[in-house]
Predict the structure.
Amino acid sequence: MVAPAAAALTVRCHDLSCRYASARGVVEALRDVTLTLAPHQFVSLVGPSGCGKSTLLRAVAGLLAPSGGNIVFDGAPDGRSPRGGLVVQENGTFPWMTVRDNVAFGLELAGISRSEREAKADAYLARVGLDAFTAHFPHELSVGMRQRVAIGRAIVADAQLLLMDEPFGALDAQTRWVLQGELLRIWEERRPLVLFVTHDIQEAITLSDRIVVMSGRPGRILDDISVPMPRPRAPRVLPPAALALQDHIWHLLEGEVRRGLAVR
């Protein structure tokens, strides 16, 4: 039996638009995005480069204010964006902190005692094979090891919301497959709400309960798909149903990608 996260969180984006100024004028990143993220789901955003996936994730994180519309957090203590775990593609660790202190950082912010936060950090590090590296610094680790540390900082804090912006994008295929499995195994213990940005359709199918397909800029939602296959799903050999889903998503995206590349 999976123990769900302590509090159920629902995120509702209503007619969300995001614009920002650039040297060439105003750029419209998102237009009229309406999306509900249900409690305990693993939701992936896929779309062409520059379509606003990361912008949407940052808006949900509270790191930028939308230009239009609003975001409602049902189940958060004050109705605002809860303090969540944010994992980015690279350099998500603090170089001046040891591996243990990096993983325990969110617990320190929450006022957890040193002994308790170090015990939780060490337990996570042992699970992912980094228990021999607790006193090392990030520059002494491989890229894949650093990503395990960054994910651990988000996981051990028991956040209601886990936001991941292409966390495996810089990794080789073999390391990515291993970390995908580790992420799912850890997530299933508590099932926080996850919003996961990826360019990789196969990765989205392997990991997700739902896949939200976005158009080219300005980003709009083309489709919101429930993944019908049970877990676990091997990323190396997709079953026929997954291949059909992959083809469907690519059919939605191909024209958007070609327009972005100005390919005719």
